[in-house]
Request: fold
Amino acid sequence: MKMRIVVVGANAAGAKAASKAKRINPKAEVTLIDRGTFISYGACGIPYFVSDTVADVKELMSTAVGVVRDAHFFKKVKGVTVQTGVEVTGIDRESKVVHLLDTSTGQSSSLGYDRLILATGSSPFIPAIDKVGLPNILTVKSIADAELLKNCAISGDRACIVGGGLIGLETAEALQKKGMRVTVIEMRDQLLPGVLDPEMAYLVEKHLRQQGVTVMTGCAVTGFIGHTTVSAVRIGGQELPADLVVLAPGVTPNVGLARAAGLDLGVTGAISVDARLCTNDPAIYACGDCCETNHLITGKKVYIPLGSTANKQGRVAGINAAGGEAVFAGVIGTSILKVFNINAGKTGLSESEARANGFDVETVLSPAHDKAHFFPGAKPIVLKLVAERTTGRLLGLQAAGEGAVDKRLDAAATAITFHATAEQLSQLDLAYAPPYSAAMDNLIVAADILKNKLAGHARGVSPHDVKRKFDAEEDFILLDVRSPAEYDETGIEGATLMPLGLLREKLEELPRNKEIITFCKVSLRGYEAHRILDAAGFENTKYMDGGILAWPYPLRDAS
Amino acid sequence: MKMRIVVVGANAAGAKAASKAKRINPKAEVTLIDRGTFISYGACGIPYFVSDTVADVKELMSTAVGVVRDAHFFKKVKGVTVQTGVEVTGIDRESKVVHLLDTSTGQSSSLGYDRLILATGSSPFIPAIDKVGLPNILTVKSIADAELLKNCAISGDRACIVGGGLIGLETAEALQKKGMRVTVIEMRDQLLPGVLDPEMAYLVEKHLRQQGVTVMTGCAVTGFIGHTTVSAVRIGGQELPADLVVLAPGVTPNVGLARAAGLDLGVTGAISVDARLCTNDPAIYACGDCCETNHLITGKKVYIPLGSTANKQGRVAGINAAGGEAVFAGVIGTSILKVFNINAGKTGLSESEARANGFDVETVLSPAHDKAHFFPGAKPIVLKLVAERTTGRLLGLQAAGEGAVDKRLDAAATAITFHATAEQLSQLDLAYAPPYSAAMDNLIVAADILKNKLAGHARGVSPHDVKRKFDAEEDFILLDVRSPAEYDETGIEGATLMPLGLLREKLEELPRNKEIITFCKVSLRGYEAHRILDAAGFENTKYMDGGILAWPYPLRDAS
Reply:
């Protein structure tokens, strides 16, 4: 008898699993079931459809050569039978049958399986707050959401995005591009919590503000105001007028079906699977946004739903369900975002995650151009490396800026996966020519700074700590070693000018026992100055990580 | 007594070594000597200066904030004494003295050292052929070369570039942009020999021809014709008119000084150094273009001079000379080139290098968009993976196309450094969002194909072999499984149309025992078709690697 493989959920993970299962086991009968109308679409592309960057929603559901991935396509090309508009209402594990409900006809039926793959995905988290059900309070997940959102995006109207994560910010840009006046409201005191450390997130926030988006952090939405439609967002005692609200506070895994069938859920609340993506029932696999996975650095279970992970997992679940053998090792928490002209992301652990996981960390903030500085179109990016102090092992990279951050993230993701140390990172034979990087790539420079710090040759202070020293009115000198021309243009309030080229001959003008913190535009000259002072016997010198370019607070105007 | 460190050669490696040595050992007296006028310039930027992409040659010698790195800069900022226009004529190793000649005054002097660092660089290889000394036969190395070349680049004139390597092609673009009629002459039968395999190099050649550059491969220049200036290039019996000739057949290490001092040269002809970059004289180090290094995959000594390597080595030599401890492990042969709109490069071993080193290899050609295909500005790139068949270990990646090849090279360079297998490569948690890649990054897709091949699920044929079969009039079917519309637009002469969507129902129309080779635009559908035929019991099916996009030969016109 032919093996019967049933896949529940026909998006990234499910569609991939079904196709792969059929290729691995061409004799198998593979059925792909989805409660929705549209299948195999790129949900990650929705903000670009809303902003008209992608003109036709069909493009999100098509192959690279423009063929729509519909039921017909799956039948003809993949040999997979698709049932859309069909809800799986239950799993009878004993008799290996799924119960189905045709959502248009209301008819029930059932379908036997030898292997079942759950790819039920995730849903936007809807906070249980007052009037959250008003019709113009939308989410960003399905094609229907996309079309609704696009229709509601009226130029001049006020949009409130609840949630300053990846989807929230992408949607903010999309609605702003449609002419809306956009406010992003984030409960935590920074944007992109869980992705970036505060000083990196502030760089993104700064950019959003420059683009005209209003950003409110540390603000919890407590309810909505309006009768038939929303007219305002309630934040504690405040009311913020809104013509449209988008809820983007994150997603939750769709685990109702699995839970009802008695399948194990993990600590994260998502479906628990082993390395083969098998649940506690050997006939049932799970993949994509509905299941949890391993974090390869911490060894802990994590729930980080992403289209890239879903595709990899779909392949593994498909192979295993079809009788093959494949494993999915886990993730390291890589994510990336383009919002307006800034690219920002991270791989591995952020500093706060690393500390929360008990690592003794050293960090580096390193801004530089993404290409040879003389090459047209070179743009600055800021890297933040996080490493284990005792071993020099790289734990994470964050990157933000208008230049190419994605390639530094990908190289670092690879390095982190293989437990690279700062030393190994600094020796990578990366692709160099002026259109692609400086002779020393940003990653190499950052790794060298990290090595200097780990060896005790460089003592860094974070911009955050410098700000705190000023606020606490500590007695220290913040030494700006840039040129007078740069100093005149902008700078940090309270800093003292001492151009690097004059430092060696003006050492007597500086107090030898006071704390001196040096900086420049990117703190390479700052580091040089720190070393000069150190060599001259100054007792307490440091340099400020990342210089002006990584300073997340307001700068002073031209003097 | 202060330690005296003398560095010979003040470009990438030397300048870095001197600066680093002084930072490591601030009490040391560091002297940086160069026979030229200009120091610490970005020689890699010269083609961009010639093409006016970089307006002022000073930009090549400046820091990112516009400070010129001259003798004054090194004294004031780095604490390093620079002597320009000074030739080191000899090394007395016994008494640890270098002999100097001031090239402007003709005065001789000598300078004692405790540690000597040789960073004497490389020179363009000048073939010993007839009239190679004519004044308008130029090279691309120094700032003087750059200015001369720019002055000689007269719109409408004919330029011949001798050598189709990285520098030759960058210069071809620069001169073409200045309005010259450019011919590139390469002795080997492909461009970029030593960098790309033939089918990847042909993609670059195709692009150059589309841009109007004449490419002649397999042509050895045997001499030049002209009295006071060159008027033609002699290629065997042929004469090719030329108003300007650029010699770019590669570089040779400057080892005269080292050799005369009795220092060991390696098998490559460059200075032999250990992992600390120490020569056979414990007081003398070497770094940059004058020394050889280790290839981390083959374990062999190689000579691959690059600005990126020079900078890393300069740091290591500087630290060690100053009394510290650092090592330079080696390289994996990464290089990259932008020529017109195409980006091309490789990391690790090419297929031909891998075979020459005795590896049993499997390869994959995988073309795809560099971003989500629906994202504006997505451009195709072709990847070629080279792996060891028995272990699945990744040996090399080549990449070419208008899209972002650099980031795939950097991630692969990192993976190769850590001995990643196809399986590990396919599981990398790379940064995904539609502006940066498809949900499955090009590298992941290529790794999955490689896994399919290694597992025997996919049997590939290279475009080269398909072409050979046609030329040998073998009896086989080349099955084009694209859509009729795509087929009408262009295709491969001799192919049979069978759209993938019809294949499952038209299997009887195909002979079951004849060799059938399937393909499509990128050969994903080609692979699908290959699997369908395989599953249906066809005896001899394969798919053509890379499809239309990787087909390096002429395509037929619209039918």
Remarks:
- The two ends of chain A are 83 Å apart (CA to CA).
